[in-house]
Design a protein that fits this description.
Structural class of chain A: mainly alpha
Strand content of chain A: under 5%
Mean pLDDT of chain A: 87
Number of strands of chain A: 2
Shape of chain B: elongated
Strand order of the largest sheet of chain A: 1-2
Radius of gyration of chain B: 24 Å
Structural class of chain B: alpha/beta
Radius of gyration of chain A: 20 Å
Largest sheet of chain B: 7 strands, mixed
CATH superfamily of the largest domain in chain B: Response regulator
CATH architecture of chain A: Orthogonal Bundle
Number of helices of chain B: 14
Number of domains of chain B: 2
Order of helices and strands of chain B: HEHHEEHEHEHEHEHEHEHEHEHHHEEEE
CATH architecture of the largest domain in chain B: 3-Layer(aba) Sandwich
Low-confidence stretches of chain B: 24-32
Helix content of chain B: 40-55%
CATH topology of the largest domain in chain B: Rossmann fold
Oligomer: heterodimer
Distance between the termini of chain B: 86 Å
Number of helices of chain A: 15
CATH class of the largest domain in chain B: Alpha Beta
CATH topology of chain A: ABC transporter involved in vitamin B12 uptake, BtuC
Largest sheet of chain A: 2 strands, antiparallel
Strand order of the largest sheet of chain B: 8-7-9-10-11-14-15
Distance between the termini of chain A: 37 Å
Number of strands of chain B: 15
């Protein structure tokens, strides 16, 4: 790994400062803005970790809801027996192991097969939990804690910082380089001696672990957990669309997708409470047609144009 | 320059005039003196629970506001307020429910926030209601954990009961039929493998055993199972005297249809959620006669009849015979408590709800020490095109349960 340049240091300091400012939100904003803050932080974490894997490899994963749901159940079941802080790493480990198993089974598949498998995974895990409930005879799980929205927000911010740090380190590592080659041409990567399956599995464990931890953090917010709420497939789709809106080519890409999308969603929910789903679908279409490379693509294009003008 | 200013001035005057004209056109005589009070409501309009909310929840929001406004408005401390609904769709997503409640309080400044829909969404929103100190009289949440909930959230009230009393009601009904000689002691019992269905099945098995029944067939099926004919065939092969299904809306319909196709002859046929929906009798017509289901109302009572009539007039749809009237009654409790206290002091309103009995469409509601309404309907039966309550935990107007005849 190469040494940090002056620019790297500057970026690190800027990111740390920005995180510090956003961490003050609970004191500066009302409860409503804080709940939007939680939503933004949650989707930022999920979409960024999602694009760490799906960005370079172009494998569209719809497994977010599966990992997320498992995480909520780790907190839901574990909180009765273990202190809360131990549950987050446990959720992360379970998510990573799950992702590794799924990766072993499916990452040799490519394209649409992988997409369908990951979509089915959430349903599969949900049915297993339902079956477990049927055997044990317990209904939903109550998570009655004193953890409030402020704590959840801070935990999510901390997790976001970790994800960015991890993404930045991966980008500088041999693994990140290997993944970019895989994304460009998997056959070339294999012929260059890269163990493509291993690289993909290792990276797939990141969104798995992160989504599970996110679920574990959010469980106290839901108070009552049942499979249909924990494994909502909508979550997987929202994460994908937000990441695509932002753009997956840059580490900060998903963030610039999550923020406008959250406010757009908010505006739709407020103004058209009877047509939310319809308008959401229209937004999806518009995003895919008009912004195929997301905001990152737009910003890069603008930069290029400005650069070209400068030389002319 | 001068000319341009004049133009702007003209435009401004015109805008003002137009606004005035518009305002004059919109406001009618009496409302001018009245203040408008925003009433927040958040429940599914999309997502898996949208269907149920469209039957039991949303029409009652409309009806209640229309009823209060029709009698002049909500009288609070010498002032009369016209109610105006602010509705949000939570997409059956607890995160959205939480956000919408905060939006209602912080952004829309809604003075009254009605409870959400369903067990899961009510409980997810409970901490937010608690933090704002809002009274939360739930009407569609079923739980046996009223004690733990009221300890954590003293502002939450439960009205629809839990699994234990429902099972008790069904067992008592079956015992009555057996003691009369209408059915034997062999029962077939199935459940949908999801939340409520699982809990009810696990309560019911030991309860029936203790009451001296013999379980000749039992199975569970996953939520969303399309083809229930194997279940019904197997149940019929076991030759039961009574059939009990702890089912959800889609399977309630599917099981009834299969029972008719297989011509299952039992003295008691019970399906759970949605049996009390008007759509159930709409689908099966006269065949529903004698079918037992979860819920019930005092269908012959004057209060319910008047309510059902208004419900149909205002919303264009019939109420269901279980949760609808409870949803409306919980709004009434809130309405009466606010008027009695005479202000929007939520702490005082909650105190008033805890201490008093309220006369509602469903009858008197008085909460116990755990903020739980102990009196609710548990079992109903279709009799002559109406779903009448046959068992309850202390409600008046129960009719005698009848033996089920052949399918028509």
């Amino acid at each position: 790994m190469s040494r940090l340049s002056a620019r790297d240091w500057r970026n690190l300091v800027l990111v740390a400062m920005a995180l510090g400012v956003t961490a003050c939100l609970p004191w500066t904003a009302g409860a409503y803005m804080l709940s939007i803050g939680v939503t933004i932080a949650m989707y930022t974490v999920l979409a960024t970790s999602w694009s760490l894997f799906s960005g370079p490899t172009h494998y569209i994963s719809l497994a977010t809801a599966a990992f997320f749901g498992v995480g909520t159940y780790v907190t839901g079941i574990g909180i009765q027996y273990l202190p809360y802080w131990t549950l987050l790493p446990i959720a992360g480990i379970i998510g990573a192991v799950m992702a590794a198993l799924v990766g072993l089974a499916t990452l040799r598949l490519s394209g649409v097969y992988f997409v369908i498998f990951t979509l089915g995974l959430a349903e599969f895990v949900r049915q297993i939990i339902t079956w477990g409930q049927n055997i044990s005879g317990t209904k939903g799980i109550y998570v009655l804690t004193s953890i409030g929205e402020t704590h959840i927000y801070w935990q999510l911010l901390g997790l976001a910082a970790l994800v960015w740090l991890l993404g930045w380190l991966i980008g500088r590592s041999r693994l990140g380089f290997a993944l970019r080659i895989i994304g460009d041409d998997e056959a070339v990567a294999r012929h260059s001696g890269i163990d493509t399956a291993r690289a993909k599995i290792l990276l797939f464990m990141v969104p798995g672990a992160v989504a599970a931890i996110t679920g574990a953090i959010l469980a106290p917010r839901y108070v009552y957990i049942e499979p249909s709420l924990a494994f909502s497939p909508m979550l997987s789709f929202q994460v994908v669309i937000m990441a695509l809106l932002g753009g997956t080519g840059r580490l900060w890409g998903p963030l610039v997708g999550v923020i406008p999308f959250t406010f757009l969603w908010e505006a739709i929910s407020v103004s058209f409470p009877n047509q939310t789903t319809l308008l959401l679908g229209v937004c999806f279409l518009v995003i895919v047609y008009l912004l195929p490379k997301g905001f990152v693509g737009l910003i890069d294009a603008a930069k290029k144009r400005m650069g070209a003008e400068g030389y002319a | 320059m001068h000319q341009r200013e004049e133009k702007i001035m003209k435009r401004r005057t015109f805008t003002r005039l137009a606004t005035l004209a518009l305002a004059a056109g919109l406001t009618t005589g009496p409302t001018l003196a009245q203040e408008v009070l925003k009433v927040g409501a958040v429940a599914p309009k999309t997502g898996p629970l949208a269907g149920g909310a469209a039957v039991s929840y949303w029409p009652n929001v409309k009806l209640w506001i229309s009823d209060v406004n029709a009698r002049g408005g909500l009288k609070v401390g010498g002032k009369t307020y016209k109610l105006e609904a602010v509705e949000y769709d939570d997409q059956t997503n607890p995160g959205e429910t939480i956000k919408a409640v905060q939006r209602l309080v912080d952004q829309d400044k809604a003075q009254i926030v009605l409870p959400p829909y369903s067990t899961g969404l009510n409980l997810a929103a409970a901490p937010i209601y608690a933090r704002y100190g809002l009274p939360m009289i739930t009407s569609t949440a079923t739980t046996d954990k009223a004690q733990a909930l009221s300890a954590q959230f003293p502002n939450v009230f439960i009205t629809l009961g839990g699994a234990k009393p429902v099972v008790q009601g069904v067992v008592e009904t079956m015992v009555k039929l057996r003691d009369r000689g209408d059915i034997g002691k062999k029962i077939a019992m199935v459940n949908v493998a999801d939340a409520f269905g699982i809990e009810l099945m696990n309560e019911a098995k030991p309860a029936f055993k203790q009451a001296g029944f013999e379980l000749v067939y039992e199975t569970s099926y996953p939520l969303g199972t399309q083809d229930l004919s194997p279940v019904m065939k197997a149940a019929k092969a076991a030759a039961p005297d009574a059939f009990i299904a702890w089912s959800y809306p889609p399977d309630t319909f599917a099981l009834t249809e299969q029972a008719m196709i297989e011509n299952l002859q039992v003295g008691a046929f019970f399906t759970a959620v949605a049996t009390a929906f008007p759509a159930y009798s709409g689908r099966f017509g006269k065949s529903v006669d004698g079918v037992l289901g979860i819920g019930g109302v005092n269908a012959d009572g004057a209060a319910f009849k008047a309510y059902a009539k208004r419900h149909e007039e205002v919303t264009g749809a019939k109420p269901d015979y279980w949760a609808s009237v409870m949803v409306y009654s919980s709004f009434q409790v809130l309405e009466k408590a606010i008027e009695a206290v005479g202000s929007f002091d939520n702490a005082a309103i909650i105190k008033h709800i805890k201490a008093n009995s309220f006369d509602t469409v469903i009858g008197p509601i008085k909460f116990d020490a755990n903020n739980n309404n102990p009196a609710f309907w548990t079992v109903g039966q279709w009799q002559g095109g109406v779903f009448k309550g046959v068992a309850s935990t202390g409600r008046d107007g129960a009719v005698d349960v009848l033996k089920k005849g052949a399918w028509k």
